[in-house]
Fold this protein.
Amino acid sequence: MISTVRDVRVELAAALAATLTTYDFLPAAPIPPFAVVMWPTDVEFSRTLGGHSTFTIPVSVFVSLSDIKYGQEQLDTYISGIPAVLEAHTTAVWRNIIVESANNFRPETLGEMSCLAADLNLTLIA
C-alpha cells in the first residue's frame, strides 16, 4: 500500500486521539489542550529499496496559559508522553515512525486565548 500525505496526517491524528484532541486540519476555534498534525516539511518518494516514502511532519501541541504554571506542566507532560504513544501505534499506513525532536516552544494567541505551544518533529517511512 502506498500511503498519501492525507493518509499519514489522518492516521497520526487518530493515533493521538486517545491522548488529546487532535486535528488533521487547522481548526477554526479549538479549545486547548489540542494538537494539529501539520503538513510535511519534506516528503522523499521511493527512498527505500521497497519503494517506500519518507515523511518529515511536525505535530504542534497547544495548551492553555490561563494558569501559567499548569500550562507549562501540561505541555511538559504531552511532549514527554506523545513519542511513546506514536511509536507504539501500529498501522498499515506507515512501517516505522520516530519522534526526532521537540522544538519551537512559543507563546501563541488564538482569538482571545493565550496558549503555549511546541512542535514535535516526526520522521516516518510509509
